[in-house]
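Narrative of accomplishments. A recurring question from our advisory board has been how the design workflow behaves on a single, concrete structure rather than in aggregate. To address it, we present the structure tokens for one chain from the evaluation set, followed by the sequence designed for it. No filtering or post-editing was applied between the two.
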């Protein structure tokens, strides 16, 4: 048999080396930016640039809309991109400019230095800079610092402008239920809505419950200033606490606290100037009525504070406190397990959870850990079955294959039409339509690809969870927060006497949206025990996968 060995040319080797998996990142933070350079235009530009480049493999377009550049943590698009970069699925990232990437010098340099070690390049088109060049670190620091200073200066100028206008009694007014805004930016009373506002205040003074007031407003078919129907009692409370109905405006009720590069809205308790502009416009409610309603809320607030204080002082009286149904509670992770004086039972549970449940939840945790340590050998097949269903890759693989065929078919049509000469106006229009379809379907393909990669990561996460469960000892001697948090992602009070613990195998965030249909979540184990004390009941508990 002949032994054939192929030695590739230098040109072929170089060409093969140049093939890169390329993604792009875009961000717009204000409406003005959207007018100058819309997000759709940026996405189309980068997608076309990558998809039709012979040496690039399209790895997705990631973007953030309406997010500030001073913090990377709150930008979901950037976080998804970095996750894919660190997982080794991207070689090159195209960014319009450094300011689009980050105004935070520390975050920007940290990411660039970490990705540089992985051999991943960020290319900033406006500055014509590559993150792989070590000599540009100083340039990046200077440019990012200037961009950061510019952002802070703009924010400072805007706040100064608002305060200066407030000193002169001039403020930018916002839509308010009960008022219309004239062309010269002044409030005038909308009599139809104002009649409802007066009725709301009188009903509150008469002692009507928020739900009753809400139903009255709904019967009038009113809409909020944003055009939505009234659906929550909190919307009624907002009206009742709004000083605008008494003819005055308060500027500076809140302020922006800057901690390093982080910004946080805080209630102004004297830290910043506050401006009260009386007789700013015609009132709907007289000041006596408005103050009387505020006095009711102040009294309710004092009662709530007193109740919380009593809760903390009298542990045995916590039986009346019932949590909100369908709310996810977290287990705390900041407990120092080496501190022998710390009551672990108390600190294991989120501080938001009523203390009545602390004792019972501790017992549920003991029982659940004991059940896992004793019976997981029998549960493992059920655990694997449910996990495989939750993390099934078969459907996504089928979708990926179908999506790949769709993209390839459009590409063949596009290049076949592109070779045609001469081209009519109809041909050029069809080329543009095919280009749009290729971009959209390619983006859909990368979204499926990301979902598939996430499943791969979660399967490793599942193996880690199983390893931790198998390492449990029986019987459980103490509630170690690290062990509990490494197995359970959260708990849900499904009813007064029903507690559900969740083992998160999919990686999806636990909230009331993902937990809508609790009964549909795969059941791993269930149990119950009878309480003793002031309240005698049977606490039903279960472990479910999600």
């Amino acid at each position: 048999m002949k032994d054939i060995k192929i030695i590739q040319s230098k040109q072929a080797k170089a060409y093969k080396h140049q093939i890169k998996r390329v993604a792009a990142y875009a961000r717009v933070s204000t409406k003005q930016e959207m007018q100058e350079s819309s997000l759709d235009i940026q996405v189309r530009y980068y997608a076309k640039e990558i998809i039709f480049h012979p040496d690039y493999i399209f790895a997705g377009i990631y973007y953030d809309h309406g997010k500030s550049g001073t913090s990377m943590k709150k930008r979901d698009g950037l976080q998804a991109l970095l996750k894919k970069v660190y997982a080794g699925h991207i070689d090159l990232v195209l960014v319009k400019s450094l300011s689009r990437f980050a105004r935070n010098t520390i975050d920007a340099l940290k990411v660039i230095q970490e990705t540089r070690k992985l051999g991943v390049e960020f290319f900033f088109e406006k500055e014509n800079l590559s993150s792989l060049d070590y000599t540009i670190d100083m340039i990046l620091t200077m440019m990012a610092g200037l961009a950061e200073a510019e952002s802070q200066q703009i924010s400072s100028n805007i706040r100064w402008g608002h305060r200066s206008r407030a000193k002169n009694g001039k403020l930018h007014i916002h839509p308010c239920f009960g008022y219309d805004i004239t062309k010269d930016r002044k409030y005038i009373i909308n009599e139809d809505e104002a009649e409802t506002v007066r009725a709301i205040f009188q009903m509150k003074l008469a002692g009507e419950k928020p739900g009753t007031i809400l139903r009255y407003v709904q019967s009038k078919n009113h809409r909020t200033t944003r055009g939505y129907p009234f659906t929550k009692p909190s919307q009624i409370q907002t009206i009742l606490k709004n000083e605008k109905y008494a003819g005055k405006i308060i500027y500076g009720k809140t302020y922006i606290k800057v901690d390093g590069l982080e910004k946080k809205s805080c209630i102004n308790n004297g830290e910043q100037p506050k401006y009260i502009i009386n007789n700013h416009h015609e009132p709907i409610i007289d000041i006596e009525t408005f103050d009387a309603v505020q006095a009711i809320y102040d009294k309710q607030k004092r009662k709530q504070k007193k109740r919380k204080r009593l809760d903390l002082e009298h542990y045995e009286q916590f039986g009346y406190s019932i949590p909100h149904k369908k709310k996810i509670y977290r287990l705390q992770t900041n407990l120092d397990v080496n501190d022998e004086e710390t009551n672990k039972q108390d600190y294991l549970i989120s501080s938001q959870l009523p203390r009545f449940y602390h004792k019972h939840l501790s017992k549920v945790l003991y029982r659940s850990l004991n059940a896992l340590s004793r019976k997981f050998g029998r549960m493992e097949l059920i655990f694997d079955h449910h996990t495989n269903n939750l993390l099934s890759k078969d459907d996504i693989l089928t979708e990926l294959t179908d999506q790949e065929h769709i993209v390839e078919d459009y590409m063949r049509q596009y290049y076949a039409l592109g070779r045609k000469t001469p081209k009519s106006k109809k041909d050029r229009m069809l080329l543009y339509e095919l280009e749009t379809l290729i971009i959209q379907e390619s983006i859909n393909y990368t979204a499926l690809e990301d979902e598939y990669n996430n499943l791969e990561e979660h399967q490793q996460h599942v193996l880690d969870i199983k390893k931790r469960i198998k390492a449990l000892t029986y019987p459980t001697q103490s509630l170690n927060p690290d062990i509990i948090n490494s197995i359970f992602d959260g708990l849900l009070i499904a009813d007064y006497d029903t507690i559900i613990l969740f083992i998160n195998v999919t990686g999806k965030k636990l909230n009331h949206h993902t937990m809508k249909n609790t009964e549909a979540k795969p059941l791993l184990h269930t149990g119950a025990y009878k309480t003793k004390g002031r309240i005698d009941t049977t606490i039903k508990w279960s472990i479910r996968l999600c």
